[in-house]
Amino acid sequence: MKHMSSREFNHDIGKAKRAAEEGPLVITDRGKPAFVLLKHEEYQRLVGEEPSIVDLLRQDEPEADFDFEPPRLREIVRRETVFD
């Protein structure tokens, strides 16, 4: 597991993000572990977080190979309500 001081983190966040790509990055404060930076997917895996319906329906994933355009409300055929 890699370590980085909070001062180094503040000066080069890009370096911290690149290090977190490889695994959790421990950020120290005055020489003691204070925070851990990790990829969001890894965090979700650790906490067992279920994806939301929005995440499941997102089309920016490689396997999303369909187009969906819901009909506009004015294009939906309206039926009269009949009360007997």
UniProtKB/TrEMBL annotation:
Biased composition (Basic and acidic residues): 1-21
Entry-linked Pfam families: PhdYeFM_antitox (PF02604)
Region (Disordered): 1-24
Recorded superkingdom: Bacteria
InterPro entries from the UniProt entry: Antitoxin_Phd/YefM (IPR006442), YefM-like_sf (IPR036165)
Purpose: Antitoxin component of a type II toxin-antitoxin (TA) system.
Family matches, as NCBIfam families: phd_fam
Family of the protein in this entry: Belongs to the phD/YefM antitoxin family.
Protein name stated in the entry: Antitoxin
UniProt source species: Labrys neptuniae
Species lineage: Bacteria, Pseudomonadati, Pseudomonadota, Alphaproteobacteria, Hyphomicrobiales
